[in-house]
Fold these 4 entries.
Entry 1:
Amino acid sequence: MVDIEKNIKHNEYASLEGMLFKLREIEHIKSLSSEWKLRLQFVQSHMIFVASSGRGWLTIDGQFTEMRQGGVYVCTPGQLIEAAAHSFDERGFYHMRFDIIEDDGSSIDSMRIIKRNSKFPVKGEVTVSSLVSFNTLCKSICQCLQDEDRLKRFRGQILFQEVLHTILQDALLVKGNDSEAALEYVKGYIEQHYQQELTIDHLAKVAGISTRHFMRLFKKRYGCSAIDYLAFFRIKEAQQLMRTSGQNRLRDIARHVGYHDDIYFRRKFKQVSGMPPAAFMKISRQKIVAYHFPNIGQLITLQINPFAAPADHPWTDYYKRKYQMDSVLPLSSNQSIKREEIRLAEPDFIIAIDILVPAEEQAMLKEIAPAFFVPWLENDWRTHLRLIAQFLGKSAASEVWLEKYDRKALFVREQIKHAFKDESLLILRITGDRYHVLGSRSIGTVFYDDLHVVPARGVDRMIMDQQVTPDQLADFDADRFLLIVDEDALSQSSWRTLMNSELWRGLKAVKNSRVDFLPSYPWVEYTAFTHDLMLDEALKLWRNRA
């Protein structure tokens, strides 16, 4: 690595001065028969996974990684994490959960636990220089924290500081021949240094790759150039400032995110957002109600954080942590209470779904504020988005988003086609004791229409809810299965019954280990937002496992 890389990374470690570290939990899995899993969730603490032995995988915000023996993986609060590991030997597998307390030194009251936007300078995979020494440290920490002697438990916290020091030290050693790790590092570097003047030559030096090779690899990996990614990230940060700090001048926001030319900032903002910054600031101050679950994803796609939304959405934490929606007014599931909550909030607009609101209730909601009831059945998800955008005066933003989605779908299609070849796919959802083949008005739209995956024989693309029996699954002759099992007890019981049946084990896709799984939320919602997430998931399922 050239000197500039070391200087860059050492400067990044300046943020450690204001951090205190507390290990909350360490888990050591070493049984040969054990399989460790972390369900899909937004994590609220920092985490470290240590693959001392065994095999496994990890997804961080949709990015799939095969855990390598000897690999150490750092995750930060607010990231969407899922992980699994198995086949351990006596060295086992370690999972640590810790908090970082930020201390600016002004007073005791200023100390706070970091719950999002962590400035911890290392994220993702780190290959430690001495796995034996690192494992010894982890083992000693386990022994200390399990001891009743308070002094030994304190010693465990000291050893944990050694673990962090080792990770930070070894993170400086990015190997030049590991282009994937270098690209991930540069992507994170952009997110850390977006306020600075960054050029392609500079970023290529950070990666330790020639400029031309870096440009080609970055675009192949992420579907856009490094400079485009920098612009997207800068504008996203500017949008967040506009939502949360309405008193800032556009000039100051532009400077904060790295633009010193106001005209160029406005042009780039409109290019990325589909509207000028002044219009974005105006609509960001409007109070817009997402009356139904899918309306949340539709509004977020239009860069609108709902002012009020249903409180009992199964994916509420997803939206809160990912989009900093802590201030959203939670709405009751009771219709009359919900209406009164909205009336007292005095919103500017209400967005709902026509078939889910009786005509009388629609009339009462329109008396509270201008309301749009999305004509659901007669339109597809793209038209849903366009109609909402038209109602809110954001048609340009919807067209920019849809154009970006189509480019992304083309990129993903090219990435997975070699792994998928001409294999057919069946998407099956188990709800209670019923089996549904997903095709029309579902994530099937993403796979069959946007990614050009071949639907299994017998998938009726015109039927919204194609119910089947287990005995009929063989008739589809699917090469691959994508399975969604709802989380309730009856659905899980139905899945276990199917999984243990001779019929299931005899299916071609099962015999060839071509079965992948998705959690039920948010994938089952028919929205632009969900479909964009599904493109990321397709990369996880097929490009990275190819």
Note: The longest strand covers residues 19-29.
Entry 2:
Amino acid sequence: MPSFYSSYDVAVVGGGHAGTEAALAAARMGLKTVLITQTIDSIARMSCNPSIGGIAKGNIVREIDALGGEMAKIIDKSMIQFRMLNKSRGPAVQAPRSQADKIIYSQIARQTIETTENLHTLMDTVTDIITAATDEKLPPDSESAQKGQIPGESRGENLSEAARSGMMQKVTAVVTERGRIIPVRSVVLTTGTFLGGRIFIGEYDAPCGRIGETGAFGLTESLRRLGFTTGRLKTGTPPRILRRTIDFSFLEENDGDDEVIPFSFETEKVERPMVPCHVVYTNEETHKIIRENISRSPLYSGKISGVGPRYCPSIEDKVMRFAERERHQLFVEPESLLTDEIYLNGLSSSLPEEVQDAFLRTLPGFEKCHVSRPGYAVEYDYVEPTQLFPSLETKRVAGLFNAGQINGTSGYEEAAGQGLVAGINASLYAKAHEELCGKLPDAKSGLGQSPSSAEEGSFQPKPKFSEDELERFSRISENITTLTNEYIRNFSESNGNSNFRAVPKYEPLILGRDEAYIGVLIDDLVTLGTKEPYRMFTARAEYRLKLRHDTADRRLSEKAFRVGLKTKAQFDSVSAKYALIDEASALLLKNPSAENPGLPPLFWEIAQEDAKYKYYIEKQDARVEKMHKMEKYRIPADFDYGAIPALSSESRQKLEQVRPLTLGQASRISGIRNSDIMLLMVYLG
């Protein structure tokens, strides 16, 4: 067992859905991993909607499973309702969705983490990332975030010494609020809504990432000192109501499907108690109360600067923006079999509590409802994602990976998918780092430890720092950095290794847009960035016919096997499955009315869909092949776009900001014309 002061290959910061997948992936790949979270009791907590899956999101969950992740297995063990969405439509837009027992879901996730070999948990808060300057040049225009285009934009002015060097940095350690300095090879930041988090309920606001849970402060300032641009985004959650205070006779019942299809390809059968959801509607009286009190909403009073999710607006936004609507549909969803709380999907609000109480009681059946938790908005910091490579590694700091809401996304599924990819790549980096740089020393006292303290002159994390406090933080950080890096360098050299400043080379896992919704998600983020919380839709995936939820194992199992997250037996089983399906598809192409030759019903259904959509898939495959050819055109990191005289100044600016790795990635940058791509192709030879 490691001592109190120890070192790790991979440190995962944050224990939400992204952090859970990142930590499990790293540990299962054989890396010594630590998950650092403010509250171990809230690992993988469902802060908002108690559900997993949905349109495109359900596809992501099955992709996570195919890649060796855990989300699908957890929801199979904790669901309390299942529905296959869009059953009447084509297979490309069908998707599984389940209500989760949020208490059981979190318990299973925590138990899985705590019983996984190579994985340790630490209840603390990371306040600083320690880096060292390397011998590698920064990628050209590594500061790709457009100035003036990011909500709540903030750029570091008091840069660290390593950031001022003009060279790429690399991670060497993390510092926690209690003063622990932990040498690490790589770090995955999965900070959720806690990074600079602040909640709002009417005139009330508090420094929290969730109601009752304090935000994480100091780390944003650390990231800015490393040279990153940050912004502010906003999300919200509805009030929770006690079930026994609702008269369900006034509500429409919304049952799940009789046939429950497991999310995980490895789950044979889901055996869980199932419960119904219900539907209720707002009315004119609801809207009247909201309109009369709209000036008390922090969204309209100017207290919130962050941009909220376009596709999940608050009830006050719905009422004000869609004044012609007489009613809005709400889904009444149970949160757990172990609690009486009910979730009101579609009623997110940050109005004062007495206003929430008043408009809730205008809903049929809610006349005597009791609110156990009010709705609220939460504003938080994010790192503009064009500052990342498609591996989710930051361009400025080698070994530093971001996943989840820190990248500007919304949703458990989007976070988990990123967390899995970031965890895999952080592990691949860490393995290459060990090979190049040798052993890491355990941490020790005497490295400038500075625990958070209320004593005068000490570092105290807080939502806003004065200039003096920022200067003090900078001074403390530089002292810790100097002592820590000197300690690690001396240890390496004493063990015959002089590669302290070297950056390891590794082949990251990068998912293509034609391979996974997770690939679409990440490519959109790192290529286009986001100015609002990003949510995945099928419409974002140009290759969605190939990205069906039922074929995720075909597309991704080999990748999971190659990185060590699937066994050979598991991969061989998938290969055998699709050999049978391919034979059945060939039979159906010869004879569309052929009977099932004895395959399992699910295999036969997949074969039928493959045969039915063969023509459309072939047309799509042609487009995919064209894209593959473009992806093979690598663009040198230092390519001089100014050397192409016919390139418009707007296109040149965008290409220099994003610095795409391939011609295919360049073609997806908003505003880049086909003629620009043709010019690039000519100059790339």
Note: The radius of gyration is 26 Å.
Entry 3:
Amino acid sequence: MTTAVSYAFDGRSAVFAGADVCREAGLCLPDTVRRPLFEDDVWDFTEVVGLPVHMTLSLRRFDFATITNIHWRMVAKELILALLAPRHPAVALLPRAYRTALHLTSCAGRLDELIKFLAWLGGQGVTSLAVIDTRICEAYLSHRRYVTDERGAVIGEQSPGTRRRAAQAVVDLVSYRELFTADRVPADLRPWGGATATAVAEMPSGRTENKTRPVEDTILQPMLAAALYLVSTLGPHAVELAGQVREADRTTSNKAGGLRHDTLIPLAEFTELLAEYRRTCRPLPMLAEHHVADRLANGWSADDPLLPVATGVLARQAGARQFWPQWMRSLRGVLEDAVAEVGVKEVFGRDAAEITTANASSTLAWTMPLHRLQAVALVGIVRTATVIVLATVSGMRASELMELRIGCRRMSEEPASGLHRYRLASKVVKGQPLGGTADEWVVIEPVYRAVELAESLHDGPDDGALLFGRFAFTIRYRWFRNWVNSPAGQRLGLTAIPEGQVNLRMLRRTLALEMAYRPGGVLASKIHMKHIAVATTEGYASRPGGAQAELLAEVNKHESDRNLDLVLAEFRNYQQGILPAGPGARSLTEFFASVDEKLEPAAASAPRTQRSDRDVLNLLTKRAMTLHIGPANFCWFTDPSRALCLKLAGTPTADRPLIGMCDSARCPQATHHPCHRPVWADHAERTKTFLGDLGKTRRTEHARLQHDYTRALRVVAEIDAASTDPSDKDSA
């Protein structure tokens, strides 16, 4: 047991006594909300104006009461308020104090780790901060570094982030030592030689590769296909279903106005109600399965024809708040007659409209009849589909999605006939001051329509209300996947979604990689990648430095890396005798030959020889900057005046090729490689099929298709000839 060091402490802070926490921190609160004071053991920031929507409620309440040592509780309060108010006169004088206020989220994390550290100290028998030395600091870092089982055996290691938080708790106590009233660490304490918490935790520098994994193609394809199908096909019907649920809640809920509370049987009303059901041939409302199970548990017979009847709903339709058990004797006869004539059925989704299934194999009702909870769940699944489309195709962060509000869609602009520009208004929260910064996203039409559907599905679509609010995407996605894989989703012809992790960060990274690496990949099969690229570029031009600018910068970085990888791979192919084909093949081959010559020791003009991939990439970088990826060729845009696409478009001075107009079989800057062979071979096969189906009278169409077919065969033959290994030719 260590010995405590006494300080003159009367229960009040020498610096912050009586302080209004929010006023000191510059946080705004509504006038009607109680303001947290320094002496409070719980600081409630729930109603602070401008907090981001994605910030959970648990992070908005700082609970110091969990620190049982009152001296240490005072230390924790003083430290957190100093982090929130760095310009306070007493804080500004500290040489190692932060000069910029920390966000409430960061302070909540600091407090959480400090509570862990103080609890650990208590468990070690330490009763005063004054006895902490470097040995104790090292012991705590070791305690937080490793994951142990119930027997204390090490089974793993914590992340660098966890280690950093542990080291930071100790560093903060050192940096703010002079501020504390009740207890302090020793003046000569310099844990880890004065190193920063980041260095102690061995945190990555931030210049390494992004560790967020993209969504696997096997998951992305069926997920996005299902989401687009639900938004486009089921969406309008889901809006109608949501309206039916709201109307039923208004009229048949036990909270509806005008209902009788007495136990007198409304016999006349029941008789008239059941007669109306029989006259219109409408089935009586059915109870959900769990309510049927409750009745069976209460002694109902499984053969009772009234077992599945929702008598409570009928009672409210007849004007009573509930169906009293004593009414059954008088009403059983008319109820059984009605059941025998019209039957019993789920209330929602009756007579559902027919739609075409996702696999276009048949038409069927868009939904089977549903109970209320099932209807609410289906509306929620469609709402989740709008989130998936929005996140996957726009690249918005989670915080930006949660800041969207009703009315965020800006009026569609038409800068040219038939061309539309769609914008969404939200806020950028990451790296911005409290309250965020208003921003707009230029998006493509499917995203715009998904937001429109989400607004229509909103329970309270008042202008300015949060569109999605705070939500847990991983949970909602799990429900979405389970529904798609359930009989309900398979009935609509949806492809099952495999197991695997999907979150909003992964979706944003997937979009960036798809735009940069795979312009003809999985995402492009459902959404036009060029449209997304143009929308993102327009968003960047509209507000340089905004949210879409960050996404575009990430895409450009990936695109540069992709081009370098492709050029290096083609250079290695050249060295193995696998040559490019196409009109631009000679120029590219000559360039590779010049690079290869610089790598040969005999031809080098200086003693140093460049052989590593890094040195080769340095020689290839300039040519990589001219590479543009087409669906069936590589375009080496070295000279705009030679670009066939620009000549055809009448824009010879453009600084980028028009890939959509590329005729790679004739353009002198286009090359074909083995990776393009399947595209041309498939085109030849399909063209051959079309030729066989043409009638004899369609001579013009036949001539055009025959020319395309011949050209495709020629390109395939050129690729095969250029790709043949020289050793194979010699052996032949």
Note: The radius of gyration is 35 Å.
Entry 4:
Amino acid sequence: MTAVPGPQGPPYPSHSPNTAPITATSTSTAERSDVARALVSSPLPLPTTTRLALLVLVAGAGASFATWWWLVLGRDNWPGAQLACLPGADAPPDEVLARFTGCVNDVRLAQSAVVLCGPLALLALAVLCRAAGRRLSLWRWQATPDHSSALARRLAAVAPEAEGPRPVLWVRGRGVGIRARASGTVRRPRIVADSYVLSLSDRSVDALFRHELAHLRLRDVGRVRLAMAAGWLLLLCVTLPIVVALARDPGLLGTGLLVRMAIVLVVVLLTLCAVLRVREHDADLAAAADPRAPRDATAAHIGSALAPRRTERLVRSLGLATHPAPAVRLAVLADPARSWGLSSLECLTTGLAAGLVFTDLTLLVAALMPEHTQLAYMVGGLLTGWVVAGVVTVAWWRAVAVGHRDASGRRAAPAGAALGLGVLLGSQLAGRAAGDWVRDTGTADGLATALSLTQVPHVQALALGAVLVIGGALFALWSTSLARTLGATVDGPRSAPVCAAAVGLSGLLLAVPLGSWFLFARLTAARAAPDIRWAVIDTPWWVAGVLTTVVGALVPAAAARGSRRAGPRGARQPRPLALLAAATVLVTAGAGWAAFGSEPKQAPATHASGDSGVSAAPTDSVNSPDPTASPASGSADRTVPLDQLPVLPPKEERTDAMRTDTALVCRALSLGGTAIWTDARRRADMTELLGGLDDTVLRAASAVLRRDPAGPVDSHALVASVLRCDLYFRYGR
């Protein structure tokens, strides 16, 4: 086996797939042991750590959606709290609007606090389940401590000295079949074994115990148990209750939500199984790196495993195995750096998780700053960017440090493209994208929105997807180039701090692109007019953010210009300036198409009943309440089908009674979209209608709009009128 020099570090084995794991020379064995020791003792996060953190975040996103479903949407968006925001007496118009919108925003903030309790409760329950699980497993297996048997002496012999509390051996009275496993905590470690271990040779027992002790030394036992508990809680406390509720009353969103939940659960399960397999590789390397262990003892023990049965082969082919195949484990032992790669499939699942996390996270952030929606999306992009960078940037950093082939441009670019595709799929697999929540739940509440791209023109959806895929590929090339430029190393005093700085920089650079993309996707899904989409990027701060992103990406490359080195195989690094110039052109072109794209085709008209015969066009404002809910009689909330709602007839056919009917005027406001504010004639007409209603908030909005009929639309008047009509549609007053 040949070795190649790693960047500013010791030589690491090459990654030829044809490497024979058993026929290595004694020198190669010593070299592999040194490499394994360097990898498991590196200050860089191990692959198990980063992927487990991502799984917990996905479970948290599911918990936040379930909390919103049960405690916000299930309570009809808190009618008492929202109706209490209606002003009781006349006051200056500006004061009326400020008090009303401020009160509604406070209600939304309270709803966000309730939604945030979901992930916190999930984490608390997972910790309790983890603690209880340790006790329950010992009780179920009828395990008892063993301090004096031959097995206990073998464990004491292989346990390293002066590395914290010594583990205690527990022997099971039943539950034979999995040989041994690490359990307990850092302060009270345990190795639980069954009687089958007594039939093994001393060499195999030592290898088995070293492997389990490696799990304890790497501290992955508690984290894995926590992630598994979160996964089970996601299934039992989130998925199943929602499935039961949807089975009883599927509504308009039932099918889409059920399909998405099933797919997300499968992805989470497959990812968890993959993490468990990676965990075994880390423990194998740590066991093989033990200086007191005989050479190839771990490999010999793994090679002595029985051939897998048909059921085990089927489970492995489905990706559900929690332990890798012996041949794969031997291949990693023969080439330790092989476990520090990052495949396209792993990037795809990371993108899926990021898309799921961003959706719920940003809606909560937006509730904290209701007057600054674009800024909220940028903050959401920053937080999600750090999550993504904490997985993929660290992984590419590790790959560059060991000279892994996954860090080469030919493999990094497709992996980055898979990352972008995963973000797209994750955004559409989120529960918020199961349908048009604004339309199908009859609310304009800030925690309900339209995110599904399945009903938009295919060209626009493809353009948005292409931007993500291309941007992901370029981000991968930039990340690997940055790692080479900064001299990524496995160990050393600068390895972890510089990697952490790279993660921080990556999150900052992803903030504006990610936030802008999700905001474009939301506006596109809501069929917003092109001028609204253009308004997203037609702001000085957005331009400044993009320039900061581009300049921030160029600074490391410019600092290292002239000092570029050959890659691990002699190929020169891709030119960062050319790549980032191409990135700027492509992303700008995609954003321009999203903003200026052709007008979406008009949705099939839905004719309202009655004599007017006026068609109901779809709303094109992201904050406009959809008119599927109508005023209810009394205090009950009654939803009426769309084709039974009244429509305000043309101006010449209106009667005085129609002009003073709040339901008809709000209906016109809902269906008018942005045209009633951008068209001078329609704006004046709507202002007159709002002023003639017996409603304090709408009259105040009309008074503010009358001050400057030809000037820019007052945002407070627009938002207040939309929110007021939303309350009227929901509660009938």
Note: Residues 352 and 505 are 22 Å apart (CA to CA).
